[in-house]
Fold this sequence. Notes:
The chain has 100 residues and is an alpha+beta fold. The protein has one domain: Alpha-Beta Plaits, CATH 3.30.70.100. It is 29% helix and 35% strand. It contains three helices and four strands. Helix 1 packs antiparallel against helix 3. It is globular. The chain starts with a strand and ends in an 8-residue tail after the last strand. The model has no long low-confidence stretch (mean pLDDT 96).
Amino acid sequence: MLIIAGTIRIEKPVTEEVLEACRNMMEATHQEDGCIDYVFSVDPIDPKVLHVFERWETQEALDDHFLTSHMTPFREAMANWGVNDMDILKFDVGSFERMR
């Protein structure tokens, strides 16, 4: 399993337009083969920060994700957000256990 986690910092507080682009991307991505989880969330302390959290079954599924038709409009939308910084990491998880 792969975990993608990080932050996207934008110039102004997150708007409804940004949230709609994120929702559209999340809904489409959740339908992809190999997607376990795909979430954007606004930081409750800093409204200029979006948190990214994804889980993928395989690297192939993640690679295919970047080739989807819904990636283009999302990237175009992001170009209008004034992205200041992106700090996103990929973790290759060999094992895990549930926490209670």
